[in-house]
TrEMBL record:
<dbReference type="Pfam" id="PF01636">
    <property type="entry name" value="APH"/>
</dbReference>
<protein>
    <submittedName>
        <fullName>Scyllo-inosamine 4-kinase</fullName>
    </submittedName>
</protein>
<feature type="domain" description="Aminoglycoside phosphotransferase">
    <location>
        <begin position="45"/>
        <end position="245"/>
    </location>
</feature>
<dbReference type="GO" id="GO:0016301">
    <property type="term" value="F:kinase activity"/>
</dbReference>
<keyword id="KW-0808">Transferase</keyword>
<keyword id="KW-0418">Kinase</keyword>
<dbReference type="InterPro" id="IPR051678">
    <property type="entry name" value="AGP_Transferase"/>
</dbReference>
<dbReference type="InterPro" id="IPR002575">
    <property type="entry name" value="Aminoglycoside_PTrfase"/>
</dbReference>
<dbReference type="InterPro" id="IPR011009">
    <property type="entry name" value="Kinase-like_dom_sf"/>
</dbReference>
Amino acid sequence: MTSEPPADAHPLDQHRDPADAALVRSLAAEVAACFGGELTRMRRANGYSNATWVGEGIAVRIAHTPVDMAREAALVRALPREIGHPEILGQGTTEGHGWMVTREIRGQNLHEAWPSLTPAEQQRAVRQLWNRARIAHDATPSLSALVATHGGFIPPTLDHANVAAGRAKDALKLSGARQSRLHDVIEGYFRAAPLVEQRVNHGDLALMNALWDGEVVALLDFEFAVLGPVEIDLSRLVGEARVSEEGQLVDSEAGTAALEIAAGHIDPIHGRALIHGAAVLDQLRDLDIFLGHDSIEERVEDWRPSRLLTGLLDAEGGYLAPLLG
């Protein structure tokens, strides 16, 4: 049981232990100072698994938990420049918490900019976000040795996925039909994944992991990069474009663009099973995150990942319905 967060806690820390959040902030301040920055003059940026501050010419990312960032740093240094990832100025570990300092580049977090964009700009942003991810996909021959075959929402084995599915069944009290569908979808993914070309996926192709300055200027945060079917990135792209932050289906030009992209890039034989499975695994991971919080007042079935997961397990296929029919 975590203690109650202080009234002035940052929204990104509302479900974290205040002592842990304070430690991460103090470590970030130490790191920023080593690169000429003052954390109190920097702004907190979006992100969940890492805490990020931007300003004074630098961006400081530090892991909330004792996680090393050496693998991610090696990958970032090898990325094609066209992806736009900011230059790494330093990387290391302090008290077990991995950190990375990059050069600040001009742009607004795409997730934060999204509500102010016109429908045409949102559509363009989705296409540009995908084009940045494709650069990584195409660079697989030179990057694959730096990327694991699991990570983020892709578990290492079917058994691991089934354990997560069991937690979801218990938490959501899934009907027999949805339980059967859940196992079928997960098994379908693991059966099909080895049969298609393996690409370096960003692994978390979310709006918050891109910068916008009239166009997408950078794709950020490759911590969950994973070698696997391209449907991993496609499933997240469609979800980001078609589902609101509150978990409601959105009919938009951006969503239409994401569906067109997905339809044009999924594997002609195994693509439906792969994109469906990847989407379900994504929501299982998010549901596990929510289950780890003890201060969410909503009913479990009303949580965003709960609603999205149950939708994906219905006959129509939730936000992937146009691709699965």
